[in-house]
Amino acid sequence: QVQLAESGGGLVQPGGSLRLSCAASGSISGIKVMAWYRQAPGKERELVASITSSRSTNYADSVKGRFTISRDNAKNTVYLQMNSLKPEDTAVYYCKVTSGWQIYYDYWGQGTQVTVSS
Q1: Residue 97 near residue 29, CB atoms below 8 Å
Q2: Taking the chain, what is the end-to-end CA distance rounded to the nearest angstrom?
């Protein structure tokens, strides 16, 4: 059984900052990629940022220079530091962990709401 515990979401004013955390626990091994996705009402879920086991990162163009993804392998935790937040960043943010050896599995968090508004 694998659980992804997300935290850090909330309401923030434009230009503010938030840090999201996602900790994986349970019988998980061989973690390859940890990532953050988001989904706004009426839109498809999109990849925000990802990070590999070697800490190679990738970002959506819309968040480059503002968001930073990082991970603590010892704690099986991934973070998303979000700075200079904009109203268009408002969405439910989901953590995803890809793990396995011969066969890979995707594990999803329950999602945490981020609202950027005055």
Answers
A1: no
A2: 40
Q: Which two tokens stand for residue 13?
A: 């004013």
What is residue 7's three-state secondary structure? strand
Separation of alpha carbons 88 and 117, rounded Å:
9
Q: Flag residues of the chain having pLDDT under 50.
A: none
Strand partners, 69: 80
pLDDT score at 60? 98
Longest dimension (CA), the chain: 48
User: At 37, which helix (H) or strand (E)?
Assistant: strand 31-39
Which pLDDT belongs to residue 28?
Answer: 83
Instruction: Give φ, ψ of 79 to 5 degrees.
Output: -125, 155
Q: How many Cα atoms sit within 13 Å of 64 on the Cβ side? A: 6
